[in-house]
Amino acid sequence: MPLFDLPLDELTAYRSPRPEPADFDEFWAATLAETSAHPLDVVVETHELALTAVEASHVWFAGYGGQPVHGLFLRPSPAVVAGPLPVVVQFLGYGDGTGSPLDWLGLPAAGFATLVMDTRGQGARARRGGATGDHDGSRSPHVEGFLTKGVLDRADYYYRRVFADAVRAVECAAQLDRVDAARLAVAGTSQGGGIALAAAALADGVRAAVVNVPFLCHYSRAVDVTASEPYAELLRFLRTHRARAEDALATLDYFDGVNFAGRASAPALFSVALMDDVCPPSTVYAAHNAYAGPTRLEIYPYNEHEGGGIPQDELTIAWLRDHLAVPTARAAN
């Protein structure tokens, strides 16, 4: 994929021209109040996979509507790193699920605890399976799309439930054993990056955020410049429901990462790939340039949606170590 979006000098200064809803904060305050009316109901079950240097558990907590959300919780064993531990709440890419603890060993090996949250309804298409249904739709994961699910009603929109779940995941992680709630970060790539932005803005206690090639940002620009999935789902909807196109975009304004970015103040590590036609660079820059806290932006000029890959993962560990003061792991006996 060649360069297709704005030139880099224009991207550097690019901002979304679309105004945010006047009642954005009231909408989210009401959503979170409705969610917090339900007890968190955290349940932890040891994972049957025996690992020497890492402890792994299944975690269930009550998300939006009190509905159960599954996650995987991993932490280095006390013999490797003594607690309390900094913790990273990780959110998943589109269609992905939590899978196995073997998929998430990087951060625990570096001295972090991590809670990986299932995205409700997802995890039936990608390599890793999920275990959380969307109880306001179906009670088991299903193949996407999700982007237009309830898009004509902000109260019924799919990502209202997901973002509320993300806030509850942060609350859950802060309560888990051997975790230092004062050193908590959120992180994600693609859809996970968009969810991390929302969590950084909405949840209390977030001290750092990692936002890699984020999806769910500047929707109106995305449908103008890309026909790639998943934004193609929205494009097809707008083509079909011509008379309701502006209604759909008005709903999405309540879920736009650009608007969450302006309300997040924790230090953030962003990444963008300039040949990314899945999450176009201008949509990433719109969120980055709106971010209210200090940022670092890693630019990958020749990459598509894979972004920085393993080098970005390595940078993330070093960046999180600096911002969360992670102790050095000891060799297991």
From TrEMBL:
It holds the Pfam family AXE1. InterPro entries: AB_hydrolase_fold (IPR029058), AXE1_dom (IPR008391), CE7 (IPR039069). It comes from the Bacteria. Transmembrane segments: none annotated. Residues 1-322 form the Acetyl xylan esterase domain. This is Acetylxylan esterase. It comes from Nocardioides deserti.
